[in-house]
């Protein structure tokens, strides 16, 4: 996974609520067996509309997405995270996230930042007023900063540490193989196997 | 203090607990399908890792498969299914391929084989894994990185979500189904209402549901944002499991049942959140918008955006759906009716459809897709397929089909469906398609009239 410490970049406001993962990456894109090339599918249906915010040239190159509440609801497809990252996003800010999307993001090094709805709106307004404004997502300080403003956000210590170090979860768990073995030895005999 | 069902199952699966770290949970059953697994197997290969417990893993082909006989025409879909076959063979995982009698939608085959049992942890790279919670299992959807993690370690690091009780008092009126109930619950608490929670559905109306109805309810927990949905196991659960291929038998059965009976929320346990619903006032429920929380009773009219909790989203949804506020739901014409999916693709659902279609004719294109090959065989043994065909509906092979339109079963742009599936998101059933979520009985009645209709109004 990519490590995430602090990132400064321009941002794009997405003034929609309930941005489900079917919108982030429609199902036809899920047929790929590789992990690359998903940027073309990001918001594929919405991008056909010339008025869609990602098509606005003033936001070209933005690397932070600032969305309405309930971002990433619906399907468990991690492809949504890959598509956002491959398009160039490093962080997503919203008042609420779908649980699975949020989990998937932290496994891949895309930082999901929860801020109160009013703060998100203020940030969106600031970006709309000046699309060139720089926004900093500072994981070390647990803080978002823009144009003299700042807002703290919560993230648990463990996830933060993993992100800061860019650590692979599987590697971490494999250090506890003995615990897993001990647990397995004590499982009930009636539990089913698939064989 | 007592513990909730969710807490009991969680605690039973903690492999390792350390301060400041998520719990490491053991996973009893890992379900796999072709869409969310290829990159996980690639990851294993890249790191030179093996599948720790292929014997706790089962794979099926469901999302991409055509529902008419014959090979997969789309080369990309075909490649994905072939990748699953190659991975299953290489890593020694049991696979039910297209055409196999055990094949079907991943959440239909687990319970059907008796692999989903009370008190287990079940995961799958699919958000509707919540379905398995109907057995009192802790079951939740995961992403591809986590699929790889479970393959490699048979565990998952996770923080315990909060607990929510949804207390459903009273009895569902005649003609009101599990689907209507869960749609009404989601409309009440919203698509984010369950976020960060494991929901336990409780109360008289829940206890009265069949296992199939319970699966319909738990299936859509994710549409309320919940991590998982659970129902305490009882005689209905045991009755369903007894004699299934992977259910315990003999002495093991007795020991298992004794344990399963302990899987109920203690009387003095406290939930973080409690929601109360009165089942006796419910009626057939449908969605009008583009998320599952945008629903109303079928006898109502489309609400004005200003009356909803999110007016901007409601207006956007109406624009997308080509609808206007104030229109009675029963005046909405549908082009296509889809019966199927892991929400409503089981035998009981097909029986409900047949009951309505018997002796009637459909006026809209009607696709009836059994959730598994076993469901198909059972339905045919009862002659349900004859009823469907006589009514002019199409009787198909098992798969996800028009639930998400990854196979050729899709809506055309602007086309409108009444669908027994679980998501009415923009473009879910095909780009530009418009979806109304309904129960199987309403789907069947709508197929007859060509507009959203309750069976009682036929
Ligand atoms: S039937 Fe639909 S919701 Fe269920 S697993 Fe298949 S695509 Fe997902």
Can you tell me about this structure?
- The complex is a heterodimer of chains A (195) and B (458).
- With 195 residues, chain A is an alpha/beta fold.
- Helices cover 33% and strands 17% of the residues of chain A.
- In chain A, strand 2, helix 3 (79-87) and strand 3 (91-94) form a beta-alpha-beta unit.
- Chain B is of the alpha/beta class.
- Chain B has 16 helices and 19 strands.
- Chain B has helices spanning 5-12, 38-47, 75-91, 106-112, 144-153, 178-189, 204-207, 211-219, 235-241, 251-261, 311-321, 341-344, 347-357, 373-381, 384-391, 440-449, and strands at 14-16, 23-26, 29-33, 57-60, 94-96, 121-124, 138-141, 155-158, 162-169, 197-202, 228-230, 273-278, 285-287, 295-297, 336-339, 365-368, 394-395, 416-419, 434-437.
- In chain B, strand 4, helix 3 and strand 5 (94-96) form a beta-alpha-beta unit.
- In chain B, helix 2 (38-47) packs across helix 5 (144-153), helix 13 (347-357) packs across helix 15 and helix 13 runs parallel beside helix 16 (440-449).
- The longest helix of chain B has 17 residues, at 75-91.
- Chain B is globular and about 55 Å long.
- At the A-B interface, helix 4, helix 7 and helix 8 of A face helix 2, helix 3, helix 5, helix 10 and helix 11 of B.
- The structure holds iron/sulfur cluster.
- Iron/sulfur cluster is lined by residues 62-63, 105-107, 126, 128, 341-342, 400, 403-404, 421-422 of chain B.
Describe the secondary structure blueprint for this structure.
The complex is a heterodimer of chains A (195) and B (458).
Chain A lengths: L5 E9 L6 H4 L19 H4 L16 E4 L11 H9 L3 E4 L4 H10 L2 E4 L2 H13 L4 E5 L4 E4 L2 E4 L4 H9 L3 H6 L2 H9 L10
Parallel strand pairs in A: 1-2, 2-3, 3-4
Antiparallel strand pairs in A: 1-5, 5-6, 6-7
Chain B lengths: L4 H8 L1 E3 L6 E4 L2 E5 L4 H10 L9 E4 L14 H17 L2 E3 L9 H7 L8 E4 L13 E4 L2 H10 L1 E4 L3 E8 L8 H12 L7 E6 L1 H4 L3 H9 L8 E3 L4 H7 L9 H11 L11 E6 L6 E3 L7 E3 L13 H11 L14 E4 L1 H4 L2 H11 L7 E4 L4 H9 L2 H8 L2 E2 L20 E4 L14 E4 L2 H10 L9
Parallel strand pairs in B: 3-4, 3-6, 4-5, 6-7, 9-10, 9-12, 10-11, 15-16, 15-18, 16-17, 18-19
Antiparallel strand pairs in B: 1-2, 2-8, 13-14
